[in-house]
């Protein structure tokens, strides 16, 4: 009842009869990208300059915040007297 039914005379699969019309494409290597040392130096220099500017802004902001806290404390003490 649940057995598979096979054909009496199995036919073989058809043979591959046609030849390719175009030859296989020629593979070429990936072109080498040369990065000049000047470009690398410019990127590194730019990174160092931007990092220094960011550090300068951070130090300035911290200094201003500390000065504001000190001035606020001094003015609060002055108004209490």
Please describe what this structure looks like.
This protein has 1 helix and no strands. The radius of gyration is 40 Å and the shape is elongated. The chain is mostly helical and 81 residues long. The protein has a domain at 40-81. It has one helix at residues 37-80.
Summarize the structure.
The chain is an all-alpha fold. The chain has one helix at residues 37-80. It has a domain at 40-81.
What would you call the shape?
elongated
Order of SSEs, N→C? H
Number of helices: 1
Based on helices, strands and strand pairing, what is the structural class? mainly alpha
Mind summarizing the main beta sheet? Answer: none
Write the layout of secondary structure elements.
Blueprint: H1 37-80
Keywords:
81 residues, mainly alpha, 1 helix
């Amino acid at each position: 009842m649940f057995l598979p039914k096979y054909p009496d005379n199995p036919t073989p699969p058809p043979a591959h009869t046609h030849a390719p019309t175009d030859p296989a494409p020629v593979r070429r290597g990936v072109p080498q990208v040369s990065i000049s040392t000047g470009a690398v130096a410019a990127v590194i220099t730019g990174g160092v300059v931007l990092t220094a500017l960011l550090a300068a802004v951070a130090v300035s902001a911290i200094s201003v915040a500390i000065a504001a806290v000190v001035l606020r404390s001094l003015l609060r003490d002055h108004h209490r007297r």
